[in-house]
């Protein structure tokens, strides 16, 4: 895993934006794997600014998001579908038909099968990841096994606590979510993990220095041939190796 060390969140966002902009310039029909959460917000803003200023085009790009809350309609302001339009898609020229976020409503098995089929036919060129403080990627929570494909998960209390800031109250946070599996994430040709802030320092140390285990889902990234971790100094502060 290559680690790019940056000073702070702003630099991490710039670094990650640069990687994605170059990817789209080099391969205009790239298939992007995208994430939500706080981490990519500034990076997405930079992609929008770049599109406006430099006209980097996403007209031939396809995107597949990692996850979606179970039970939330795409128009719900806390749905990841809504998040993606607000933070990125409304500000670039990606086509609606090329945007894919797991469907939060309807039949669980049908939704998972459909997403898995699309992902099998559209291998991801570059996957953006953030990390939960419990080591989750997408909504692959700490578990006894690595799940391979898109599935519906019970969110852990840790994740519910972390995400309640986006809702009016904890009760409103959905208890389940759809997520791409670890197998699908690992099949992306390139993975970019962005980590910022000292509250991620403990888990980032476990990912970089600890064993590969489904108890720390992101630790599997060690087995991927092309992972770039963009991390700021606060996030790297507990690593034994000096960054
Ligand atoms: C969201 C996702 C999650 C987040 C993680 C970190 O699509 O895949 O794994 O990346 O929960 O969230 P933030 O960035 O809010 O700390």
Q: What is the mean pLDDT? A: 97
Structure summary, number of beta strands: 10
Name the poorly predicted regions.
Answer: none
Number of helical stretches of at least 4 residues: 7
Q: Bound small molecules, which ones? A: fructose -6-phosphate
User: What percentage of residues falls in helices of 4 or more residues?
Assistant: 25-40%
Structural category: alpha/beta
- Characterize the main sheet: 7 strands, parallel
Radius of gyration: 17 Å
**Spatial strand order of the main sheet:** 1-10-9-6-2-3-5
Q: How does the overall form come out from the CA principal axes?
A: globular
Percent strand = 15-25%
The ordered string of helix (H) and strand (E) elements is: EHEHEEHEHEEHEHEHE
Head-to-tail CA distance between termini:
14 Å
